[in-house]
Design brief:
The protein has 2 domains: 288 residues, Aminopeptidase, CATH 3.40.630.10; 80 residues, Carboxypeptidase-like, regulatory domain (Immunoglobulin-like), CATH 2.60.40.1120. 30% of the residues lie in helices and 20% in strands. InterPro entries: CarboxyPept-like_regulatory (IPR008969), CARBOXYPEPT_ZN_1 (IPR057246), CPM_N (IPR033842), Peptidase_M14 (IPR000834), Peptidase_M14_domain (IPR050753). One of its GO terms (molecular function) is metallocarboxypeptidase activity.
Length: 437
């Protein structure tokens, strides 16, 4: 027990409120993993242009691998190298989670029922290149090739023809290899929680200045969960008098149009709901303000992770009880242009607010199963409602319903040129059918 206490003391001493450069950040993550080997897993998902590791620390009762029924969550910070607050508060979040495991029942349950991935910096080169901290702008925003990583993902609305950067590619592969359900990426330069879509067209309503996803209600809830648990974000005053955000949230497109952003990519191609958190008016504030930023965000960071347990989850199996990967499972009325499919374990996770829904499970080539579920608010119990589907006539491995790589919403726009906004859902459904054919 004395050894454990010593570990805690040395860890607490190691993490003070200052900026941690590459070597210190890496040393800290390795130290945490050494002190809590059964609760953490440290790995690099790739390298930056200059060859720096993109470290991810995974925390949970089963940190090294996915466990059936336990959802995957992630936080990513510092994708703009000169936006630095998120990078530091994620280190303090790690410290808070490991030191409170088995002490605080809330944190213990959270870690027992969630696999949490934390990437303190997606753009380590940009951070190191920011020699003169600045509140508004520096070259360090970009990666070493001068690319803005938050304009570098495939876009669902237009062919953005970007050269995918090593940091972006690493994150895309990471998303493909994990079953992420919920995520947030941490930025600076404003104080607001921004949500999908960042780009849009007439089908998603962008002509009205708001680009609405099929899960708009869930996104508003997620953004408000963060802003109302944050010390001041919910007040909506923003950073100057020109810009106010009611409740401290905004639809991404309503704020400004963005092509090739990470949050839309997560939602469309990764089946992962992601919001963008702008945490500080000053992009690279003085180190003596970091402690206050941590205090302002601490509760919100934890409450947001809990939302990964919203909605319904389960497994789709065949007549022999074997999992069926690539089965489509979606709530009626909210189809995704890239159908949301089960993972290799036949699992699905759907984030939905409490209420009554019809869940449609489809194994391509067989008839669909429809089930009505009444979803309670289960975030406090750290487990979404569980509902499994068993296809008695199926005993085969299915091939995935293809999801086009080209911008998906262009097709929708063409087919809806003459369609009123109220028919958006109908158009989405039609597109889904076309995709399946």
């Amino acid at each position: 027990e004395v050894v454990g206490v010593l570990c805690l003391v040395s860890l607490a001493a190691a993490l003070d409120f200052k900026y941690h450069h590459g070597e210190e950040l890496e040393a800290y993550l390795k130290q945490v993993h050494a002190a809590y080997p059964s609760l953490t897993h440290l790995h690099s998902i790739g390298r930056s242009v200059e060859g720096r590791d993109l470290w991810v620390l995974v925390l949970g009762r089963f940190p090294t691998h996915h466990k059936i029924g336990i959802p995957e969550f992630k936080y990513v910070a510092n994708m703009h190298g000169d936006e630095t607050v998120g990078r530091e508060i994620l280190l303090h979040l790690i410290d808070y989670l490991v030191t409170n495991y088995r002490r605080d029942p809330n944190i213990t349950q959270l870690l027992n029922n969630t696999r949490i991935h934390i990437m303190p910096t997606m753009n380590p080169d940009g951070f190191e290149a920011t020699k003169v901290p600045h509140c508004y702008y520096s070259q360090g925003r970009y990666n070493k090739n001068g690319e803005d990583l938050n304009r570098n993902f495939p876009d669902a609305f237009e062919n953005n023809n970007v050269t995918i950067q090593p940091e972006t590619r690493a994150v895309m592969n990471w998303i493909k290899n994990e079953t992420f359900v919920l995520s947030a990426n941490l930025h600076g330069g404003a104080l607001v929680a921004s949500y999908t879509f960042d780009n849009g067209n007439s089908v998603t309503g962008s002509s009205e200045g708001y680009s609405r996803s099929p899960d708009d209600d869930v996104f508003i809830h997620l953004a408000k969960t963060y802003s109302f648990n944050h010390a001041v974000m919910h007040k909506g005053t923003g950073c100057d008098n020109r810009q106010t955000f009611p409740d401290g949230i905004t639809n991404g497109y309503s704020w400004y149009q963005l092509e090739g952003g990470m949050q839309d990519y997560n939602y469309v191609w990764g089946q992962c709901f992601e919001i963008t958190l702008e945490l500080s008016c000053c992009k690279y504030p003085p180190a003596d303000q970091l402690e206050k930023f941590w205090r302002d965000n601490k509760v919100a960071l934890v409450e947001y992770i809990k939302q990964v347990h919203l909605g319904v989850k389960g497994q789709v199996t065949d007549k022999n009880g074997n999992p069926i990967p690539n089965a489509i499972v979606e709530a009626q009325g909210r189809p995704h242009v890239c159908p949301y499919k089960t993972n290799e374990h036949g699992e699905y996770f759907l984030l939905l607010l409490p209420g009554k829904y019809v869940i449609n499970a489809t194994v391509p080539g067989f008839k669909s199963m429809l089930t009505t579920v009444e979803i309670p608010d289960n975030t406090g119990n750290f487990s979404a409602l569980k509902h499994d589907f068993s296809f008695s006539e199926v005993s085969i491995r299915t091939s995935p319903a293809s999801c086009p790589k080209t911008p998906l919403y262009q097709e929708l726009e063409r087919s809806s040129a003459a369609v009123k906004p109220t028919l958006h859902i109908l158009v989405l459904v039609t597109t889904m059918i076309l995709i399946f054919k």
